[in-house]
Amino acid sequence: MARKEKQTEPERRCIVTGASGPRLPLVRFVLGPDGAVVPDLEEKLPGRGAWITASADAFSKAEKKPPFARAFRSSARPPEKLGELVTDLLLKRCMNLLGLARSAGQVVAGYEKVREFTDRGPAGAMLVASDAGETALSRARNMAFEAPLLTHFGRDELSLALGRENVVHAAVAPGRLAVKFVRDAERYRLLAGLPDSDMSEKRNLDD
């Protein structure tokens, strides 16, 4: 039997930069029946989609010279403060995904529990609060191994999402929720202009 070739994901084109590539760092928009431009973060809304790179620069250009009418070939009314709106929506979506993972028993929080969890196997995502100190960050790097290391969210945000006080370390189990969470967290980081705290920093620490 012939081996099936691995399917590649269709590329998407940013309507601001004109660059094409995987949809991972892009945000989809659709046109509502009333002509309003709607962010489609779950990428499930019907209709023709228009994509914008998740970066502060791309969204700033989209606000100054909206590209939606050309993309949709129709009158289009984008929301005000588009970048701020999508950044807030992505943050809420990330916290909602953490809450879902918690309800499904796919998150552990607290240094000791995270350490025990990663001793048994790799995490799908490793989190350390953005307002934690260097010691906490170093511990998270040591526990992350090959898992994405995220420092995008503060203690208050993590604590609220996970229903406990003073969350500094947390880990999400591998699986569908972790994949969705990591993608949305990365889009949030890019759009908010936050630094990359992933494996490149871990390698620098080990050098």
List the keywords.
disordered C terminus, alpha+beta, 60s Ribosomal Protein L30, Chain: A, Hypothetical Cytosolic Protein, Chain: A, elongated, four-stranded mixed sheet, 2 domains, disordered N terminus, 43% helix, 207 residues
Q: Supply the number of structural domains.
A: 2
CATH-derived topology of the largest domain: 60s Ribosomal Protein L30, Chain: A
β-strand percent reads 5-15%
What's the name of the CATH homologous superfamily of the largest domain? Ribosomal protein L30/S12
Quickly give the structural class: alpha+beta
Q: So what's the CATH class of the largest domain?
A: Alpha Beta
At CATH's second level, what is the architecture of the largest domain?
A: 2-Layer Sandwich
| Main sheet specs | 4 strands, mixed
Strand order of the largest sheet: 6-9-7-8
Q: Specify the number of helices.
A: 8
Described by the principal axes of the CA atoms, the overall outline is elongated
Given as residue ranges, the uncertain stretches (5+ residues, pLDDT < 50) are 1-6, 199-207
Tally the beta strands: 9
Report the C-alpha radius of gyration, rounded.
Answer: 19 Å
Strand and helix order: EEEEEHHHEHEHEHEHH
Distance between the termini: 47 Å
Q: Whole-number average pLDDT?
A: 90
Q: Fraction of residues in helices?
A: 40-55%
Quick structural summary:
With 207 residues, the chain is an alpha+beta fold. Helix content is 43%, strand content 15%.
Please write out the topology.
Elements: E1 12-13, E2 20-21, E3 26-31, E4 37-39, E5 49-53, H1 56-64, H2 68-72, H3 82-103, E6 107-109, H4 111-120, E7 125-128, H5 134-144, E8 149-150, H6 155-162, E9 169-172, H7 176-192, H8 199-206
Parallel strand pairs: 7-8
Antiparallel strand pairs: 1-2, 3-4, 3-5, 6-9, 7-9
Helix pairs in contact: 3-6, 3-7
